[in-house]
Amino acid sequence: MIEQATENIFLIDVESRRIVESNATFREALGYSEDELHSMTLYDVVAANRRFHRAVNLASRSPRLLTFLRQAARMVPTNYFELFPEQERTSREDHAALLGALERRDAPAARAIAEAHVLGAGEALGEWLRSRAG
Q1: Contact between 66 and 56 (Cβ < 8 Å)
Q2: To which H or E segment does residue 5 belong?
Q3: What is the rounded CA–CA span in Å between residue 21 and residue 37?
Q4: How confident is the model at residue 30 (pLDDT cuts 50, 70, 90)?
Q5: Cβ neighbours of residue 85 under 8 Å, at least 6 residues apart?
Q6: How many angstroms separate the CA atoms of 47 and 78, rounded?
Q7: Which of 18, 20, 65, 119 is the most buried (most CB within 10 A)?
Q8: Do the beta carbons of residue 28 and residue 46 sit within 8 Å?
């Protein structure tokens, strides 16, 4: 039943924080095999996402952008993917599209993809904050 689910499902060992079981949807969304995930914690997944963003941001060589992103990152909870599991697949797809645009040296496409990515994440976070406030 879990394996056929279209939602991301994973189990974490409470003590070690390791991913001990996951369904195909979760593995596909992250791009890792079951064996690879068993050696990871959810924090490893979040750290990989942060490293990706950092590398892209540094490549921009824009001090203004980096300052803005540092401020914006403070608003994002460290357990973002736990709160918004549907964003894992979206992030992976957005990251692949962004890398493709960067490889093609298509700055307008890269900018549009990055803007949509950040806005989508911000909208999900904003909705979550509104739901908690009221």
Answers
A1: no
A2: none
A3: 8
A4: confident
A5: 7, 8
A6: 9
A7: 18
A8: no
Is there a contact between 104 and 97 (Cβ–Cβ < 8 Å)? no
Strand partners, 76: none
Both tokens assigned to 100: 């493709």
Neighbour-count burial for 27-45, b at 16+ CB within 10 Å, e otherwise: bebbebeeeebeebebebb
What are 9's two structure tokens?
């499902």
- DSSP code at position 126: H
pTM of the full structure = 0.62
Angle in degrees, CA 30, 6, 75, rounded to 5: 50
Among 49, 42, 44, 28, CA closest to 95: 49
What is the reported pLDDT for 1? 59
Q: What single-letter amino acid sits at 49?
A: N
Domain limits, the chain: 1-40, 48-133
